[in-house]
């Protein structure tokens, strides 16, 4: 998460690979996923105020509920967990740049920023492990987003193993403007017990990562495509624009294309946007292992 004055970037989370490996008795699915975070995302401002407030702007502001939001749940969860602290009123402003219910972990990333920043603002003596445990109660993706680094996630997403020496990757993100409910996609899964991710290559670069991705999957892509066939059109648009590897992220409907350079990604994004003016299209780069958490 990059600091911009009092404003922080809540990066999009991209599941480069996502294997569903089982299902717990309580209904939660077990996963293994390689995830990265991008330089593009929502923007969140957190500052002291005379009274609590929450406002939303940005291209997807009209899709964000202002009364039942994960950002407010994160704020209130911190207050409940640390009642002895002087948790003064705060103003939270969200610039919503990521599509809602799009497979990019936007709400979880927003909540992660709020948790991290409020612990500083309120001087809460809280470790990363404490925050991750609290975040996991808000949503399975929140611990991943608190890390904000290339990682391998397992369990229901709460167990995180950071990946060192992971390079930045050129990406194009495309969403056709169709929200997809994660719960519906998981419910449509026919097979809940698939093989685990293969080991990562010993040398991590664009080509080895691309080749590794070819032997992995997103087990949620098939049911999501059945529910929303337009996802297939998104994949074709990225392939047509020169993507070296294309896949759906998370539960969809956003898909990503992998590009060897930032300029190639930008040209591809321009091409896709021209053919599909109603789609969300963004060229970006993922954050490398050493890039994450630096102030902008």
Count of separate DSSP helical elements: 9
| Silhouette | globular
User: What summary fits the major beta sheet?
Assistant: 7 strands, mixed
Roughly how many Å apart are the termini?
9 Å
Over the alpha carbons, how many angstroms does the gyration radius reach? 18 Å
Order of H and E elements: EEEEHEHHHEEEHHHHEEHE
Instruction: Name the helicity range.
Output: 25-40%
List the uncertain runs. none
Overall CATH class of the largest domain: Alpha Beta
The overall average pLDDT, rounded, is 93
Beta-strand percentage range: 25-35%
Level-2 CATH architecture of the largest domain: 2-Layer Sandwich
DSSP E strands, number? 11
- How many domain regions? 2
Category by helix and strand content: alpha+beta
CATH topology of the largest domain: Ribosomal Protein S5, domain 2
SSE layout:
Blueprint: E1 3-4, E2 7-23, E3 29-48, E4 53-57, H1 70-81, E5 90-95, H2 106-121, H3 128-138, H4 142-147, E6 151-154, E7 159-162, E8 170-175, H5 182-187, H6 206-213, H7 221-227, H8 230-240, E9 245-248, E10 255-259, H9 262-275, E11 280-285
Helix pairs in contact: 1-2
Give a verbal description of the structure:
This protein is of the alpha+beta class. The chain folds into two domains: 3-162, Ribosomal Protein S5, domain 2 (2-Layer Sandwich), CATH 3.30.230.10; 170-285, GHMP kinase, C-terminal domain (Alpha-Beta Plaits, 2-Layer Sandwich), CATH 3.30.70. Helices cover 31% and strands 27% of the residues. The protein has nine helices and eleven strands. The protein has helices at residues 70-81, 106-121, 128-138, 142-147, 182-187, 206-213, 221-227, 230-240, 262-275, and strands spanning 3-4, 7-23, 29-48, 53-57, 90-95, 151-154, 159-162, 170-175, 245-248, 255-259, 280-285. Strands 1, 2, 3, 4, 5, 6 and 7 form a seven-stranded mixed β-sheet that branches. Strands 9-10-8-11 form a four-stranded antiparallel β-sheet, with helices on one face. A hairpin with a 5-residue loop joins β2 and β3. α1 packs parallel to α2 (106-121). The longest helix is centred in the middle third of the chain and has 16 residues, at 106-121. It is globular. 43% of the residues are buried.
């Amino acid at each position: 998460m990059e600091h911009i004055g009092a404003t922080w970037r809540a990066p999009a989370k991209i599941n480069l690979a996502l294997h569903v490996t089982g299902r717990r008795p309580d209904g939660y699915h077990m996963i293994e996923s390689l995830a990265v975070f991008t330089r593009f995302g929502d923007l969140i401002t957190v500052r002291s105020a005379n009274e609590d407030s929450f406002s939303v702007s940005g291209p997807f502001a009209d899709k964000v509920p202002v009364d039942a939001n994960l950002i407010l749940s994160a704020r209130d969860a911190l207050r409940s967990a640390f009642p002895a602290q002087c948790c003064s009123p705060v103003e939270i402003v969200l610039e919503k740049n990521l599509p809602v219910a799009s497979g990019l972990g936007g709400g979880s990333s927003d909540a992660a920023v709020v948790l991290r920043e409020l612990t500083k603002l309120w001087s809460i003596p809280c470790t990363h492990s404490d925050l991750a445990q609290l975040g996991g109660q808000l949503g399975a993706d929140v611990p991943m987003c608190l890390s904000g680094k290339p990682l391998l996630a397992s369990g229901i997403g709460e167990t995180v193993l950071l990946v060192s020496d992971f390079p930045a990757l050129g990406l194009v993100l495309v969403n056709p403007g169709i929200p997809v409910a994660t719960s519906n996609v998981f419910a449509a899964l026919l097979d809940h017990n698939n093989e685990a991710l293969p080991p990562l290559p010993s040398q991590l670069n664009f080509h080895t990562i691309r080749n590794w991705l070819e032997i992995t999957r997103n087990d949620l892509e098939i049911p999501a495509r059945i529910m929303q066939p337009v996802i297939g059109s998104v994949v074709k648009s990225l392939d047509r624009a020169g993507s070296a590897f294309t896949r759906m992220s998370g539960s969809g409907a956003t898909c990503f294309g992998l590009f060897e350079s930032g300029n190639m990604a930008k040209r591809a994004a321009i091409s896709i946007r021209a053919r599909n003016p109603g789609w969300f299209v963004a060229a970006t780069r993922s954050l490398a292992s050493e890039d994450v958490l630096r102030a902008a």
